[in-house]
Design brief:
Pfam families: Pribosyltran
GO molecular function: glycosyltransferase activity
Helix content: 25-40%
Largest sheet: 6 strands, mixed
CATH class: Alpha Beta
Strand content: 25-35%
Strand order of the largest sheet: 4-3-2-5-6-7
Order of helices and strands: EHEHEEHEHEEE
Number of strands: 8
Keywords: Glycosyltransferase, Transferase
CATH architecture: 3-Layer(aba) Sandwich
Number of domains: 1
Structural class: alpha/beta
Protein name: Phosphoribosyltransferase domain-containing protein
Number of helices: 4
InterPro entries: PRTase-like, PRTase_dom
Radius of gyration: 15 Å
Length: 165
């Protein structure tokens, strides 16, 4: 990974979401619910929810990245974990900002697979090394991505918000 970064603006993000939603619609996939992977997937899921007219949105909190290029050994689901009853027999669209290593998406996909009618994934970016090949991808890149919501440092730092590896 070089110094060059992929830079996503809010304006470009809006276009990316519309194009992702159009790809889902063109494919004929009609999800019953969108499951976002927090935190970056929240933005994606919200946009897709509006564009696809899906109001049933759920959140799965997964901790993996602890900084630029630094991760925990394995992704970890954080509470509250969605109830499998809420997922039962649904067509689920998993939404995230990026499939980097794919380990977080794989964890969520595997969690869903045993309980849902069908699970597919939509991401803004997918990297070549991802373990998961997403059905819906706006752009493929091998660069580090500067997302508009995470490029600036937090306004305040709160202790205990990131798990230590």
């Amino acid at each position: 990974m070089g110094d060059e970064r992929e830079k996503l603006t809010y304006e470009l993000f809006g276009r990316a979401i519309r194009e992702l939603a159009q790809a889902v619609a063109d494919d004929g996939y009609e999800p019953d619910m969108i499951l976002s992977i927090a935190r970056g997937g929240l933005f994606v899921a919200g946009g897709l929810g509006y564009a696809l007219d899906v109001k049933n949105l759920h959140v799965m909190n997964v901790e993996f990245y602890t900084g630029v290029g630094t991760t925990l050994e394995m992704p970890v689901m954080l509470p509250p974990v969605p109830s499998v009853v809420d997922l039962s027999e649904k067509k689920v669209l998993v939404a995230d900002d990026v499939a980097d290593s794919g380990r977080t998406l794989k964890l969520v996909h595997d969690f869903c697979a045993e309980h849902v009618a069908e699970v597919r994934s939509a991401v803004v970016y997918e990297k070549p090394r991802s373990l998961v090949r997403c059905e819906y991808v706006w752009k493929r890149t091998d660069r580090w991505i500067d997302f508009p919501w995470s490029v600036e440092p937090p306004v305040v730092r709160r202790e205990g918000q990131v798990l230590d590896s």
